[in-house]
Amino acid sequence: MNNSSASNHVTSHRSDRQLIYGLTCLLLALLSLTIGVFTGNPVGISGIASLALGLLFACTMIFFFFRYAHFTKQEEKTQNK
C-alpha cells in the first residue's frame, strides 16, 4: 500500500469515527432531553440537570459533525490529487 492510499485510509477512518461519535451524542442528547425534561419535572433539579446534560451533548454533537465535515473535505482533496 503506497503512502497516499494509507493516509487516505486513515482519514476515512477518522471521518467515520467522528460521524459515529456525533450520532451517539445526538442519541444521548435526545434521550436526556426526553426523559429528564419532558417526562420528569422540567422545573425541578432533575429537569434542569437533564437539560444541562442534554445541551452539553448537543454542543458536543455539533463539534463532532464539524470535525466529520472537515475530515470528509480533507479526504476529497486527497482523492482529487
Q: What report would you give on this structure?
A:
This protein is mainly alpha-helical. It has two helices and no strands. The chain has helices at 3-39, 45-80. The radius of gyration is 18 Å and the shape is rod-shaped. The two termini are 17 Å apart. The model has no long low-confidence stretch (mean pLDDT 86).
SSE order and pairing:
Elements: H1 3-39, H2 45-80
Helix pairs in contact: 1-2
Keywords:
rod-shaped; 81 residues; mainly alpha
Radius of gyration: 18 Å
Helix content: over 70%
Largest sheet: none
What is the number of helical segments per DSSP (H or I, 4+ residues)?
2
The best one-word shape is: rod-shaped
- Calculate the mean pLDDT score and round it: 86
Total beta strands? 0
Distance between the termini: 17 Å
Task: Note the beta-strand portion.
Answer: under 5%
Order of helix and strand elements from N to C terminus: HH
**Structural class given helices, strands, pairing?**
mainly alpha
Low-confidence stretches: none
Could you write a compact summary of the structure shown?
The protein has 81 residues and is mainly α.
